[in-house]
Each structure stands twice: as structure tokens, then as C-alpha cells.
Specification:
The protein folds into two domains: 140 residues, Type I PLP-dependent aspartate aminotransferase-like (Major domain) (Aspartate Aminotransferase, domain 2), CATH 3.40.640.10; 102 residues, Alpha-Beta Complex (Aspartate Aminotransferase, domain 1). It is globular, with a radius of gyration of 20 Å. It starts with 13 loop residues before the first strand and ends with a helix. It is an alpha/beta fold and 259 residues long. The chain is built from seven helices and nine strands, in the order ββαβαβββαααβαββα. It holds the Pfam family Aminotran_1_2.
């Protein structure tokens, strides 16, 4: 989408050594007079890290130094956070008019296939977004919109129960992957993904993905699918049963031992 609009994407690496948090000094050095948008996804996919309030305030300070710079905050995993509460960069004084919030119902409310989402943004951006949406996705079905209202206005019991179950699965898959020789796996802070390093296995991300599927019957995604910094890593989703997660870890252990 960035290239579609004639702009140039500038990737920002998340560092395994920092539990997949960015180097904000590096971010500051990458912002130029041509920079128009900083895209944040927190808690994020594929690594499961979540920016802290201090990190978001630092980013906000950088944004406020540039009058033509906006932030697009993808907050769709905000309810699946294992410690503390979600903090939005839009809540920082001066940032409401500089922030585009993207959110939806696929993750918190398990409405994945209904493809319902929403944006909150400064009024001057609305006509441009409407023009894009009308010509790409048209509109959401009425019953889906009513379901979204019910989700927002209803109790959060099921969301909290789902997050608690994800926390159990997070521990299960993280401990399991760490027990496989040659695999490193930081613990996710949110969402439902792990992003382990498989560099020490001697396989590239694509090779590991292929052999995991063909030889172990485990579906995972090459880290290189997420950009230039992803090679040497793979993404696994733990939106599955504890039984299947345990089976997947056992099969991956067998695969790695056979290399």
C-alpha cells in the first residue's frame, strides 16, 4: 500500500536482543523532512512484543518535532496483553490530532472471517480514506456491523477468558521451543505469536518452513515473509489447542534433531 501511493517504505528492525523492541535512537535518525507516517503495531505480529508507555512517549516527542508527520497505530491486539494495560499513543497530549488508530474485531472477539474493522483519525484525513475504502472493500454487511456494536457494548468476560488461555499457551509453546537445541525464543508480551530464531539449525527461514510442513506436519511461516529483517526466524501462532501445541513442539524437536 505504501508503494501503491507512490511513497517509499523504510523498514525498522525489531531486535531479538531487546525482546523484539526497536532502537528508538535509530528511529530518530531515520526520520527526515520527507517522512510523513510512522506505522506502529503494538502488541504486534509477528513477534508478540508490545511498546511500553515510555517508548510511545519517546516516539510522540519525535513526531511532535515534525509538523507534517502522523502516526498510524495498529491496535488490533490491544486486548491480548499479558502484563499491564494497553496504552495508546493517541492519549498523549497533542497526539490525538496526529494519530490514525486502526482496530477491528478479528482478534479480541474471534470474528476473523467477518473482516470488520474501523479507523479513528483526524477529520482532514477522512475523505482520502473513504475514497480508498469505497474503491477497495465497499462496505461491511449490516449484520456484521451490528455484531461489532454488540461486541463493543457487551461484557468483556469472554475476551478476558480467551487472553488467560492464551497466556497458558504462551508459556507452553515458549518453554517447549526453548527446550529444542539450536532454537532461541523470547517470550511474547501480547498477541498470540512466537518468533523464534532458527539460525543455529543451519537452515534458512524458507527451508525451515518447507521442512516443518513436509517432514513434521507443522504449519509455520518463514520470518522472511515479514521483510528483510525476518530471515533466520519463523513465526508460529498459538491460537490452537494445548494438545496440538505440544504435538507441534515434539515434532519440531524431532525435525531439528534429524538435521
Amino acid at each position: 500500500m505504501i508503494r501503491f501511493t507512490g511513497c517509499t517504505p523504510v523498514p525498522m528492525q525489531l531486535l531479538e536482543s531487546k525482546s523484539y523492541h526497536p532502537d528508538l535512537d535509530q528511529l530518530a535518525s531515520q526520520i527526515t523532512d520527507k517522512t510523513r507516517l510512522i506505522i506502529l503495531n503494538t502488541p504486534e505480529n509477528p513477534c508478540g512484543s508490545a511498546l511500553s508507555e515510555d517508548e510511545l512517549r519517546t516516539i510522540a516527542d519525535l513526531v511532535m518535532k515534525h509538523p507534517n508527520l502522523y502516526v498510524m497505530a495498529d491496535e488490533i491486539y490491544k486486548d491480548i496483553l499479558y502484563d499491564g494495560e494497553h496504552f495508546s499513543i493517541a492519549s498523549i497530549p497533542g497526539m490525538e490530532e496526529r494519530t490514525i488508530i486502526l482496530d477491528g474485531f478479528s482478534k479480541s472477539y474471534a470474528m476473523t472471517g467477518w473482516r470488520l474493522g474501523y479507523g479513528i483519525m483526524p477529520p482532514e484525513l477522512v475523505p482520502h480514506v473513504v475514497r480508498l475504502a469505497v474503491n477497495s472493500v465497499s462496505c461491511a454487511a449490516t449484520f456484521t456491523q451490528k455484531a461489532g456494536i454488540a461486541a463493543l457494548e457487551g461484557p468483556k468476560d469472554q475476551v478476558e477468558a480467551m487472553t488467560a488461555e492464551f497466556a497458558t499457551r504462551r508459556r507452553l509453546i515458549t518453554d517447549g521451543l526453548r527446550g529444542i537445541q539450536g532454537i532461541r525464543c523470547p517470550e511474547p508480551e501480547g498477541a498470540f505469536y512466537v518468533f523464534p530464531s532458527i539460525e543455529e539449525t543451519g537452515l534458512s527461514s524458507r527451508e525451515f518452513e518447507d521442512r516443518a510442513m513436509q517432514e513434521a506436519g507443522v504449519a509455520l511461516l518463514s520470518g522472511s515473509a515479514f521483510g528483510q529483517y525476518g530471515d533466520g526466524y519463523v513465526r508460529l501462532s498459538y491460537a490452537n489447542s494445548q494438545e496440538n501445541i505440544s504435538k507441534a513442539v515434539e515434532r519440531l524437536d524431532t525435525l531439528v534433531r534429524s538435521l
